[in-house]
Amino acid sequence: MKKFAQSVKNFLVSEDGPTAVEYAVMLALIIVVCIVAIQAVGTSASTTFSSVGSSLSGTSSST
Q1: Are 17 and 11 in contact (CB under 8 A)?
Q2: φ and ψ at residue 46, rounded to 5 degrees
Q3: Rounded CA gap, 41 and 53, in Å?
Q4: Rounded distance, CA 32 to CA 26, Å?
Q5: Rounded Cα gap, residues 9 and 12, in angstroms
Q6: Distance (Å, rounded) from C-alpha 18 to C-alpha 14?
Q7: What is the pLDDT of residues 34-51, one digit of tens each?
Q8: Overall pTM > 0.85
Q9: How many CB atoms lie within 10 A of CB 45?
Q10: Per-position b or e across 30-43, b if 16+ CB within 10 A of its CB
Protein backbone atom coordinates (compact mmCIF):
# COMPACT_ATOMS: atom_id res chain seq x y z
CA MET A 1 0.00 0.00 0.00
CA LYS A 2 2.87 2.33 0.79
CA LYS A 3 4.37 1.63 -2.63
CA PHE A 4 1.05 2.51 -4.32
CA ALA A 5 0.77 5.75 -2.37
CA GLN A 6 4.33 6.66 -3.34
CA SER A 7 3.65 5.98 -7.02
CA VAL A 8 0.49 8.15 -6.88
CA LYS A 9 2.47 10.92 -5.21
CA ASN A 10 5.20 10.67 -7.86
CA PHE A 11 2.58 10.82 -10.62
CA LEU A 12 0.98 13.93 -9.16
CA VAL A 13 4.31 15.67 -8.59
CA SER A 14 5.68 14.90 -12.05
CA GLU A 15 4.64 16.80 -15.16
CA ASP A 16 2.92 13.75 -16.65
CA GLY A 17 -0.23 14.23 -14.57
CA PRO A 18 -1.09 17.76 -15.67
CA THR A 19 -0.10 16.96 -19.25
CA ALA A 20 -2.45 13.97 -19.32
CA VAL A 21 -5.27 16.12 -17.95
CA GLU A 22 -4.61 18.80 -20.57
CA TYR A 23 -4.72 16.20 -23.34
CA ALA A 24 -7.96 14.79 -21.94
CA VAL A 25 -9.56 18.25 -21.88
CA MET A 26 -8.41 18.96 -25.45
CA LEU A 27 -9.78 15.59 -26.59
CA ALA A 28 -13.12 16.31 -24.92
CA LEU A 29 -13.33 19.71 -26.64
CA ILE A 30 -12.49 18.17 -30.01
CA ILE A 31 -15.20 15.54 -29.52
CA VAL A 32 -17.77 18.21 -28.63
CA VAL A 33 -16.87 20.26 -31.72
CA CYS A 34 -17.13 17.15 -33.92
CA ILE A 35 -20.55 16.25 -32.50
CA VAL A 36 -21.84 19.79 -33.06
CA ALA A 37 -20.50 19.83 -36.62
CA ILE A 38 -22.03 16.43 -37.41
CA GLN A 39 -25.39 17.55 -36.05
CA ALA A 40 -25.26 20.74 -38.12
CA VAL A 41 -24.40 18.81 -41.29
CA GLY A 42 -27.10 16.25 -40.50
CA THR A 43 -29.73 18.95 -40.07
CA SER A 44 -28.66 20.63 -43.29
CA ALA A 45 -28.69 17.34 -45.18
CA SER A 46 -32.11 16.48 -43.80
CA THR A 47 -33.47 19.83 -44.95
CA THR A 48 -31.92 19.38 -48.39
CA PHE A 49 -33.28 15.85 -48.79
CA SER A 50 -36.74 16.98 -47.68
CA SER A 51 -36.65 19.80 -50.20
CA VAL A 52 -35.51 17.50 -53.00
CA GLY A 53 -38.10 14.90 -52.02
CA SER A 54 -40.93 17.41 -52.06
CA SER A 55 -39.73 18.79 -55.41
CA LEU A 56 -39.58 15.30 -56.90
CA SER A 57 -42.99 14.34 -55.58
CA GLY A 58 -44.42 17.58 -56.98
CA THR A 59 -42.97 17.04 -60.47
CA SER A 60 -43.78 13.32 -60.62
CA SER A 61 -47.49 13.94 -59.96
CA SER A 62 -47.71 16.47 -62.80
CA THR A 63 -46.30 14.09 -65.43
Answers
A1: yes
A2: -65, -45
A3: 18
A4: 10
A5: 5
A6: 8
A7: 999 999 998 888 889 999
A8: no
A9: 10
A10: eeeeeeeeeeeeee
Task: For residue 62, give the DSSP letter.
Answer: -
Q: Where does the chain have alpha helices with state H?
A: 2-13, 16-61
d(CA 33, CA 39): 10
Sign of CA dihedral 13, 16, 18, 21: negative
DSSP-assigned letter for residue 14: S
The answer to whether the CB of 19 falls within 8 A of the CB of 13 is: no
- Tens of pLDDT, residues 1-35: 888 888 877 777 777 667 888 899 999 999 999 99
Distance CA 51, CA 35 (A): 24
